[in-house]
Amino acid sequence: MDIQISKEAAKWYKHELDLENNDNYIRFFVRYGGFGGNIPGFSLGVSKDAPEEVHAAKEIDNITFYVEEKDAWYFEDNDLKIKFSRKKQEPEISYEKRA
Predict the structure, then answer these.
(1) What does the pLDDT look like over 35-57, one tens digit per residue?
(2) SS3 93
(3) Sign of the C-alpha dihedral, residues 5, 7, 8, 9?
């Protein structure tokens, strides 16, 4: 799996999660419930956590966005793509099938 995140979306997460100079990890994880997820009944959560066992990661502006190995099942054969919606003024998450 690959994580694709736009610089605008990365900036939004940095601001919304109040990242300081020593906070440089953002974890995407599976959570029960919610909507708009890749698998019905689950959704994507976000937290400021240091990695333990990274499955996929992408560094943007000194911030590492990552998914742990234990959450890899949720993405199946998809890449995680996050771009910033100027209309909604928040990130838009999509799951794209790997070729």
Answers:
(1) 667 887 889 999 999 999 999 99
(2) strand
(3) positive
How many whole angstroms separate alpha carbon 77 and alpha carbon 88? 28
DSSP 22-73: T--EEEEEEEES-SS-SSTTEEEEEE----SSEEEEEEETTEEEEEEGGGGG
Which pair of tokens denotes residue 68? 């742990």
Cα 4–chain centre separation: 9
Instruction: Identify the CA nearest to 28 among candidates 89, 72, 61.
Output: 72
| Beta carbons within 10 angstroms of residue 79's beta carbon | 16
- Whole-angstrom distance, CA of residue 86 vs CA of residue 49: 27
